[in-house]
Write a structure and sequence with these properties.
291 residues, mainly alpha, globular
């Protein structure tokens, strides 16, 4: 059962990894924050309609504190991450944000839950983080700005916080209503950005299709998979598996967008994949030996 949960989280990360490639098909200028707000809105409210129609939500039983904290963490991740990328570049911003999230998650579990990270998680996370760094070096030059690095760290902490707090909400709710309520509230936090940023690009049918995919495929379905898996595995393991996102993005970049990776980046791909395999199959072996 736990192995299946690891695979659910892994599939979620693969779907997240398609967002960059999908956004490359948007025609014209589109501010990342408006894309973030729209994808959360479409993903959250579409699921909310389904959950309400199916009578899956009992509002007086919703753990509102955990839900609001999860929504706030997800909403904070968007401006932190996109601002970091703008300030210090895609490579550094992405590495610091995505690479720091598993570390923050492990620290939070250690401090709050008194759950010390095990050897499998440490080796897998170290391999994946080093791989992530090598992947995004890829021969690019970038200017490191301290303000951008701090914002990227904030993004990593926000995602780690989301994983842990949403796990608390998932103890009392099923995945569909939990994701529906959390992302609908999170979208409401970001909707004010739509008032002063240009959203005219939505009128293009191609762009509308891309945004719809980002909302349904890369948000609704992906976070349903992530939340379903998160119910059965530690949040630190789930966040480490989320490093499959940049791995997927890199592979799609090579085969669809026709990007070229350096030898160093391919070593990073191998280390990332190795870390993910160590965590997935190492945990499976540990669970089998216990049973």
């Amino acid at each position: 059962m736990n192995f299946r949960s690891y695979m659910y989280v892994l599939l979620a990360a693969v779907l997240w990894g398609t967002t960059g490639t999908a956004q490359s098909f948007i025609e014209g200028a589109a501010h990342p924050l408006t894309i973030g707000a729209l994808r959360l809105g479409i993903g959250g409210f579409a699921l909310l309609l389904v959950a309400v129609a199916a009578k899956k939500i009992v509002f007086h039983e919703v753990p509102w504190r955990a839900v609001f904290l999860s929504a706030a963490a997800m909403a904070l991740f968007q401006p932190f991450f996109f601002s970091a990328v703008q300030l210090t570049g895609v490579a550094v911003g992405t590495v610091v944000a995505i690479g720091s999230a598993p570390v923050f998650s492990g620290m939070i579990e250690w401090i709050v839950l008194k759950r010390r990270p095990d050897r499998v998680w440490v080796f897998a996370t170290a391999s994946a983080i080093i791989g992530c760094m090598l992947l995004f070096i890829n021969g690019e030059s970038s200017t490191i700005r301290l303000s951008g690095v701090f914002l990227a760290l904030g993004a990593g902490a926000a995602f780690a916080g989301y994983a842990m707090v949403s796990k608390s909400a998932l103890r009392k709710m099923e995945a569909v209503p939990a994701v529906a309520v959390i992302f609908s509230i999170s979208a409401c936090f970001l909707f004010p950005f739509l008032l002063f940023l240009d959203v005219s690009y939505i009128g293009n049918p191609v762009n509308l299709g891309v945004i719809a995919y980002l909302g349904i495929g890369a948000t609704s379905i992906s976070y349903l998979l992530f939340s379903t898996g998160l119910k059965k595995i530690p949040s630190s393991s789930a966040v480490t598996l989320s490093l499959a996102e940049p791995l997927t993005a890199a592979i799609l970049g090579v085969f669809i967008v026709r990007e070229v990776l350096s030898n160093t980046a391919w070593i990073g791909v191998a280390l990332l994949l190795g870390g993910i395999l160590i965590l997935t199959f190492g945990k499976r072996k540990a669970a089998a030996s216990v049973s």
